[in-house]
Amino acid sequence: MTASNGEEALQIARRHTPALILLDLAMPVMDGFTFRAKQLQDRSLASIPIICVSGRHDAHQAAEQLRAAACIPKPFDLETVVLRVMALAVC
Description:
It is built from four helices and three strands; from the N terminus they run H-E-H-E-H-E-H. The chain is α/β, with parallel strands linked by helices.
């Protein structure tokens, strides 16, 4: 599933409880930092791991701050995403 902004992503996660979230930090309406804070406050969503996806120069530090399971800096290719997801054994 995809969402066009952080607020929509939070609503989708609450309805469908994904096994993993690919989280872009630069989303409209609600950025990735706010999304993650709200995710961690919601008991039904808090345990869902995230992979931080970002074009920020400090993407890895941001991912650590958010307690992300992994970080994929932009630009990236599909193989990188697949390998990270498989490494987390959620498929």
